[in-house]
User: What shape does this take?
Amino acid sequence: MKNRKFFDGKVIWITGASSGIGEAIAIKLSELNTRLILSSNQEEELVRVKSILKLKPEDVYILPLDLNDPASLEEKAREAQNIFGRIDILINNGGVSQRSLVLETSLETDRKIMEINYFSGVILSKCVMPSMLTRGFGHIVAVSSITGKFGFPLRSAYSASKHAIYGFYESLGAEYYDQGIRSTIICPGRVRTNISLGALGPDGKPHEIMDPGQQNGISAESCAMDIINGIRKNKRDVYTGGRELMMVYIKRFLPWLVYRQARKIKRT
Assistant: This one.
C-alpha cells in the first residue's frame, strides 16, 4: 500500500529494461499505476517486456538507446522528457560485466565498460536534473554492485566502474538534497540474471558462460522489490542479495580477510 501511494502517477525511466533486474523492476512498477519509459539496445526484448506489463499501452514507451554511444544520449534524454512531459525517477540500471585478467583486458575494453556502466548514467542524470530542480522533486537511482565496495578477480574494469558510481551519486545526493533531489545507490550481490553471459572476456567479446554464483543467486524479482522499497524509503544505499553481502561488512572491519579470500578465487 505504501509503495502504491508513493509511486502513483510517477514517470519512471529505466535503462537496461530488456532483461534481468531492469525487466523485473519494470514488471513490479507496472503494478503501481506508474508511467514507464523502457530503454536498452535490445528493442525486440523491450517490446516483449512491454507486452507483459500491467499498464495501458499508452502508459509505457519504448525508447531504444545505446549506452556506449555517448554522443546520442543527450538527444535521447530530451526525447524521454518529452514523452510524458517529465521524468520523476531515473533508474540507471543498464550495464555490462567483465571476466578477464588485468593484463588480458585491452584499454578499449576498460574504456567501454566505464562508458556503459559509469559515464552513460552521468550523462543521463545531468540531462534530467535541471527539470527536476525546477519542479523541486526528482530521484536518481544508480545500480552499482558489491564489487563497487571491493576489488574482485577478473572484474578490474567492472569493479572500477562500480566504485565510480558511489563517488558520483553520493556527491550528487549531498549537493542537491535541499533542492528536492534524492539519490539512491543499489548494491546487488548475486542475482540470478544473464549478466555473466554477456560479460566481456579477454577478447572483448561476450563471456557466454553462466557463473555458478550467479545461477544460485536471489531472483531478479526479489532484487527488484528490494530496490523499489528502497526508493520509496529514500534510502541512500540498498543492499540486495544473499550471504555474499556479508563481505561488505567484513571488508569494513577485517579487510585483510577479504583480500585473502579474493586471492583464492579461480582465475579461469
In short: The longest strand covers residues 181-188. DSSP finds eleven helices and nine strands in the chain. The radius of gyration is 18 Å. The chain has a mean pLDDT of 94.
